[in-house]
Amino acid sequence: MTSILYPRLLDQAAADLHTSYATMTVEQLRDKYTFSHPSAVFAATGGRRVHAEHLEELRRHIVEAAEEEGFPGGGRRRDHSDFDRQIARLLHERCGLVAAEAAVRPIWAFLALVVTPDVSYWRFPDPPVDRILATDITRHVWGRLWWRAHLLVLPETVPDRYRLLNTFGEADFDQIYARRALLGGSRTLIRTIADTWPSVDRHDLPARLVLRDLLKRLLRVAAVVEFDTLDDGELRDTIRSEAEVTVLELRKRGGYGRATGSSDRS
What we know:
The chain is mainly α.
């Protein structure tokens, strides 16, 4: 697959735009979008440059999805998890990015500040800089969603390739995403965890507590087992076995508390 190259908004320009836009209302930002910027650059090689028409279409789809969620209105505490799942699939299907290009922070800053400033600041009012500038892609308003879809998407032969997006909320998926490198960067493992998770009998334990402990156990297994060498059945059995031990040990321990719920971050 030939990657589409997106403009990369230089750091100072991105910081200046964020400083300016952070003081504006969503309504004021609605006429600030554009599809180019004088401080944006492209990679010299590696794909074909995105056309303005492609960016226009991408913005249109994002705005339409946001409008279904009440954009430009919608309170700070509103649950946008459905919107996030829809956008994750949209970005992954339509951006035409490969993982190497999607790891470039200034691409996401360009999409947030140039193409969709109004929707970006609607989704995260008064956002910390990482939500907009992509100093941490795992926190970026759009970058985190592309990566969530990329790590969970199933093979093209599967009818509903993006169904695993429904398994975890953002905060729970962050538990996996934060450990992806230590887990060997295995997309197969991450997908199988998500596919197996609904069948895990957690008894009365908080979901996030079980997930966090399960991931610790899988990290220990990863020191001696190459997960990608296991067939599907072996991998599922390994995850289920470690999950059973997790639940058993947590129940034995007792006093685990319930402070670690499974609600999404806003």
